[in-house]
Amino acid sequence: MKIAILGGTGPQGKGLALRFAAAGVDVALGSRDGERAAQIAQELNEQQQGVTGVISGVDNLAATAAADEIVILAVPYAAHNATLEAIKPELNGKILVDIVVPLADGDPKAVAMPEAGSATEEAQVLLGDEIPVVGALHNVSAATLNKLGHAINCDILVCGNDLAAKEKVIELIESLDVKAYNAGPAVNARCIEAITPILIRLNISKKVPFSHAGVKIWAPDH
Fold first, then answer.
1. d(CA 148, CA 142)
2. How far apart are CA 73 and CA 189, in angstroms?
3. Helix (H/G/I), strand (E/B), else coil: 141
4. Counting Cβ atoms within 10 Å, is residue 142 exposed (0-12), middle (13-18) or buried (19+)?
5. What's the rounded Cα separation, in Å, for the pair 161 and 135?
6. Do 11 and 78 contact (CB within 8 A), yes or no?
7. 157 and 183 Cβ atoms separated by less than 8 Å
8. Based on the number of CB atoms within 10 Å of its own CB, is 187 exposed (0-12), middle (13-18) or buried (19 or more)?
9. What are the DSSP calls for 24-75, one per residue?
10. For 116, phi and psi rounded to 5 degrees?
11. What DSSP character marks residue 161?
12. Pseudo-torsion of CA 39, 60, 74, 164, nearest 10°?
């Protein structure tokens, strides 16, 4: 299986690439600069030993084309719409996993939701109903993803309007040895994406004894 991660040269993209490769999934790392993506991919492969997943680096359009079915969008929000417009021709028959959070300009402790309501919903509007968009992985710290010796410390909330697409994305995410939950339709991305700045605020606060926290769904003990 091969997936694509666009914006894969950033901290979150690199962390996801390492995690999926360690789980045996091949990754096409995408960037606006294909040469930089190839260099980063080589560096990531050299970090790991004994894994079965291979990371390759190409430009965003080539990475999208190389994916068997699932394409993860991990670019900064400022590049969200332009990237989607550029890769749309290669998304037919594929699932777009949008992990982008529209943080407020100059203030990562707040969101600035687009007119569509959330980045996930905005992506669905831009791509049209024929390309399923699934929102996921919004609340996972990049620092956590890149610490391969440690388990991912949170659960994953997954939303979108296409149930079959969500189920495929949940299966992929759970290959990382985490629990992923169907959190409902795409409109719920407004709540899920808005959790990220709250976590950022807590994680940088000097009044809490932790950093890089995530969200965990706890079952009742009775």
1. 11
2. 15
3. coil
4. middle
5. 10
6. no
7. yes
8. middle
9. T-EEEEEESSHHHHHHHHHHHHHH-SS-S--EEEEEHHHHHHH-SSEEEE-S
10. -70, -15
11. S
12. -130
Q: How far is CA 120 from each of CA 24, 80, 131, rounded to the nearest angstrom?
A: 27, 10, 12
pLDDT tens readout for residues 54-80: 999 999 999 999 999 999 999 999 999
Task: Report pTM.
Answer: 0.95
What's the rounded Cα separation, in Å, for the pair 77 and 104? Answer: 10
- pLDDT tens sequence across 104-162: 999 999 999 999 999 999 999 999 999 999 999 999 999 899 998 889 999 999 999 99
Q: Which residue has the tokens 């759970």?
A: 174
Please name the residue that has the structure tokens 């203030």.
107
Integer Cα distance of 212 and 73 in angstroms: 21
Contact 56, 25 (CB under 8 A): no
Say if strands 133-135 and 156-160 run parallel, antiparallel, or are unpaired.
antiparallel
Output the six-digit token pair for 60. 């965003």
